[in-house]
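Objective 1b of the project was to move from sequence-level analysis to a structural picture of ligand recognition. The entry below was assembled by the postdoctoral researcher (A.K.) and checked by the PI before modelling. It contains the amino acid sequence of the target and the SMILES of the bound compound, zinc ion.
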Amino acid sequence: MLRIYNTLTKEVEDFRPSEPGIVKAYFCGPTPYDHLHLGHARAFISFDFVRRYLLLRGYNVLYVQNITDIDDKIIRRARELGVDWRDVAGKYIDEYLSLLKELRIGVDLHPRVTEHIEDIIEFVKVLIEKGHAYVAPSGSVYFDITTYGDYGRLSGRRSSEEWRQEEEVLAEKRNPFDFALWKAAKPGEPSWPSPWGPGRPGWHIECSVMSSKYLGDAIDIHGGGQDLIFPHHENERAQSESYFGKSPWVRYWVHVGPLTIAGEKMSKSLGNIVRLVDAIKAWGPGVLRLWIFSAHYRRPLDYKEEALEQARSTLKKILSTYDMLSRAVKERPLEHRLGERELRVWISLSQTWREFVEAMDNDLNSSRALAALHRLLSIANAEVLTSGSSSLAFKALSVMELMDRVLGLLPPREEILKTSDQLEELIKLIVEVRSRLRAKKMYEESDWIRAELGRLGIRLADTKEGTLWFVERQAGST
Ligand SMILES: [Zn+2]
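Corresponding predicted holo structure:
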């Protein structure tokens, strides 16, 4: 059984979703106001491993990752650049979506705040009606944290004394730690009409609203970086549990550790960031995924070139082993029987798969799972490929492919299709050679080429405009 660490209880718990076989998961996505950096990739890729492992475990996963497309940071950036805030958000949303694709991160839904303003207003209305929120003189709406008895349990912090507050904001709140659900518009700021006057949503409310809109009032996993535990997730929890009048709203709170550089958190404010586009250019998506997989998701991951070099050499080994195993399976017929030695190797291959699953079941211990993959590679290279047994190669290949459903490293279909492009050029060349032979009336040679191509499943048809050709496809081929 899968066991996972729950930030709320501070314990590793058995994973039991609210509906058997279905996992509803929400992960806090980006605020598109600047380029993404490696820290974002660490969080998103770590959760992609969680999502993929749940799928491999047989769950139906509905995975939502929001986009905060209106926020103070976006407004500030647009002012600095002298452009419309929508252009800032649009540009970085495009970057984000294309990088997710490049990094092979799967997300079912990307709801955006600006497309859910009506839902947010309705949610805030209910919180006011229920007495959990109040309208301040400015037209801002605040959540009254004294109305929610469990405030602080997730983060272990009861108040937000650390954060700076503007005088006028502080003055209109009932308690200094109340937080904004709706922010009254200041001159020149983007705003939407509401019953409390023009304004825009506070940051935390969007995740409560969009997660419940798509996943209902019983969310199995809510995740984010550890830096979101307070105040973001603490506030989300207060709003949602007050709104639904039930607890728990989220069954498992799961948080990813920071990405550090020389021991310090990588963040824009510290100015020590490595842009994600640059990292992908330097290392490639597979190396980044493998490097992130090498550390447990809750621990800090330090950015070190040596670690990435190591991931690069491991990836090379994975790909070359995969290639050779595939060739062995393709070129040799499967055996009718296995000898005693082969049977032993077959069992040790199976064991690597069991180790992988046991490691992942234990709070997604990916570093131990990676050790199982390394063991598989050693067996494949030392015992499978040298044995000449295609049954063993087939077994090793199957285990590798299963592990890769979590890791996502083996080449995507587009890569395989690239070979087809080359093949197409090659066929065109041969057809052209045949046409030239025909032009010289060398029919014996040209007929021989036609017959040989036919034997390979490539059919030719001579027309007045030249020779057409096609490849006969077998059922199930890609
Ligand atoms: Zn969020």
